[in-house]
Write a structure and sequence with these properties.
CATH topology of the largest domain: Rossmann fold
Shape: globular
Strand content: 15-25%
Largest sheet: 5 strands, parallel
Number of domains: 2
CATH class of the largest domain: Alpha Beta
Distance between the termini: 25 Å
Helix content: 40-55%
Number of helices: 11
Strand order of the largest sheet: 4-3-1-2-9
Number of strands: 9
CATH architecture of the largest domain: 3-Layer(aba) Sandwich
Length: 250
C-alpha cells in the first residue's frame, strides 16, 4: 500500500470532509482520526485546542502519512499556520465558506454557524473583513455534542435549532454557512427549520484543494483502489458512529 493521507477532527464531524475526499480521490487511502475524547474543541482555550490538535497530528505522523487534512474549522484556525511552518508535508485546512455564501446575498443576512473558537480567531476576522457584509456570526454551542451523541437528525436537534434560530425568525435569511464539519449532519434538521434557505459548506472546495496540492507535489497515488480506516481517542463506540455517518452521506 502506498503512503496514506491523514485526516483528523475533534470528533466525528470530519467524516463529512472525508466523504468528499474519497469521492474526488478514489485511489487514495485515508486514515481518519477523531479526537472524541476531547470533543468539542470550540469552547476550549486556545492552548488546549493546540495541544489536542498536536496530539492528532502526532498520531497520524507515526503512521507515515504523506499529507494532513485538518477536517476541523476550529483546529485549522488555531493551529494550521504553526503546522505548516514546522512540517515538511502538505497541510490542508478548512475555513467557513463565507466567500461563496456572500454571492447569494440579496438584501438579507448570511448566518455563519460555527463554534465559538472559530468565530473569535483571527482567520475568521479576516474573512469577515473581505466577505462579511450582511454576515451574522451564530455560535452553535451544543450542536457538536448532539451529533457526537448520534442525534444529528432527532427531535432533540430540532428543538435545539428552533431555539438557536429563534432570534432570526422574522429576518430575511439568504444563506446559512455551515462553519463546522459536524454541521453537515444537521442539514435535514436545518432544512425543516429553514425551508428553501441555501446551506453552504466548504467541503468540496477543501477536497479539491487537497487534490491540487497532491498533484503539485507529485504525491497522487498510483494504485487503482483506495480506502479508509477510522481511529478514535474515544474508542470503538465512535469509530462505529463514524462508519454509520459516512454511509448516511451515500
Amino acid at each position: 500500500m502506498e503512503r496514506p493521507i491523514g485526516v483528523f477532527d475533534s470528533g466525528v464531524g470530519g467524516v463529512s470532509v472525508l466523504h468528499e475526499a474519497l469521492r474526488l480521490l478514489p485511489n487514495e487511502y485515508f486514515l481518519f482520526y477523531g479526537d472524541n475524547l476531547h470533543a468539542p474543541y470550540g469552547p476550549k482555550s486556545l492552548e488546549d485546542i493546540r495541544r489536542y490538535t498536536q496530539g492528532c497530528v502526532d498520531f497520524l505522523l507515526k503512521r507515515n502519512v504523506k499529507a494532513l487534512l485538518i477536517a476541523c474549522n476550529t483546529a485549522t484556525s488555531a493551529y494550521a499556520a504553526q503546522l505548516r511552518s514546522t512540517l515538511s508535508l502538505p497541510v490542508i485546512g478548512m475555513e467557513p465558506a463565507l466567500k461563496p455564501a456572500s454571492a447569494l446575498r440579496h438584501g438579507g443576512q448570511i448566518l455563519v454557524l460555527a463554534t465559538d473558537a472559530t468565530l473569535h480567531l483571527e482567520k475568521f476576522r479576516r474573512l469577515m473583513e473581505l466577505y462579511g457584509k450582511g454576515a451574522v456570526p451564530v455560535v452553535g454551542s451544543g450542536i457538536v455534542e448532539l451529533v457526537e451523541g448520534g442525534k444529528a437528525d432527532s427531535p432533540e436537534m430540532d428543538a435545539f435549532l428552533h431555539d438557536l434560530f429563534a432570534p432570526y425568525k422574522n429576518t430575511q435569511i439568504d444563506a446559512v454557512v455551515l462553519g463546522c464539519t459536524h454541521y453537515i449532519f444537521i442539514k435535514k434538521a436545518l432544512s425543516r427549520l429553514l425551508p428553501g434557505v441555501p446551506l453552504v459548506d466548504g467541503h468540496e472546495g477543501t477536497a479539491r484543494q487537497l487534490r491540487r496540492v497532491l498533484e503539485r507535489e507529485g504525491l497522487l497515488s498510483g494504485v487503482q483502489a483506495g480506502g479508509y480506516e477510522f481511529f478514535s481517542s474515544g474508542g470503538k463506540e465512535y469509530t462505529d458512529l463514524m462508519e454509520r455517518l459516512l454511509r448516511s452521506l451515500g
